[in-house]
């Protein structure tokens, strides 16, 4: 049985699309047949992260409106024959696809792919409601900043109201020295605030930016700390017991937990 993940966040700029690209490539590196669906209509970037921007002929809207079958719109990755992208439109808006259309498409994709990863628009508007409709599990991406965690808290509440049963957290752009100094929330602090399981922590790594600019996600690089963190998350998605990267917990940020009403 295939698995559908939606990768979501409360705000933009926390690394949601980067996470989608790295997990997709990471799963393909492990031999899984994977399709990534970009549902951030009007603001697509997943094709850039994968280096596929010049190979797009059709998009998600062409498929859901019945102009082409989904197989014609899929773009195969240049290095992994088992990894595909279904890009979205750059000119339509997020109301161009409704939840029923995405659910129907994903049911078709389940027959061919082991893993379906949906890159969700930031926020809680119609695009969010569409993207989560077909998913089995939500991966919420946040950063160790109060505003990002508060927005993640809101997203988790919306997922709960939508009856999403499986929700896991990925903490991105952690700076170990700031964590050690008690100046940045660590994994346990954030997990305590948001009350959901953490499946990954990704350190701040300049190689994420350089890799994205090359269209080669850092999960492919074995000299990148972030790449290793994404490979660890992939392993956990596959059911492996992999320890988290260790950061010293100072507890400074625990005083801010009352902000969230927990």
What is the general shape?
Answer: globular
Q: What's the number of helices?
A: 11
Overall residue-averaged pLDDT value: 90
Which strands sit side by side, in order, in the main sheet?
3-4-2-5-1-6-7-8
What is the β-strand count? 8
Which segments are poorly predicted (pLDDT under 50) over 5 or more consecutive residues? Answer: 247-259
- What's the order of the H and E elements? EHEHHHEEHEHEHEHHEHH
Question: Which radius of gyration do the C-alpha atoms yield?
Answer: 18 Å
Main sheet characteristics: 8 strands, mixed
Question: What's the layout of helices and strands?
Answer:
Elements: E1 3-8, H1 16-29, E2 34-38, H2 46-49, H3 60-64, H4 70-73, E3 75-76, E4 83-86, H5 99-110, E5 115-119, H6 126-132, E6 137-142, H7 146-161, E7 166-174, H8 176-180, H9 187-194, E8 197-203, H10 206-214, H11 225-237
Parallel strand pairs: 1-5, 1-6, 2-4, 2-5, 6-7, 7-8
Antiparallel strand pairs: 3-4
Helix pairs in contact: 1-11
Plain-language structure description:
The chain has helices at 16-29, 46-49, 60-64, 70-73, 99-110, 126-132, 146-161, 176-180, 187-194, 206-214, 225-237, and strands at 3-8, 34-38, 75-76, 83-86, 115-119, 137-142, 166-174, 197-203. The chain is an alpha/beta fold and 262 residues long. The longest helix has 16 residues, at 146-161. It starts with a strand and ends in a 25-residue tail after the last helix. The model is unreliable at 247-259 (pLDDT under 50).
Features of the shown structure:
alpha/beta; 37% helix; 17% strand
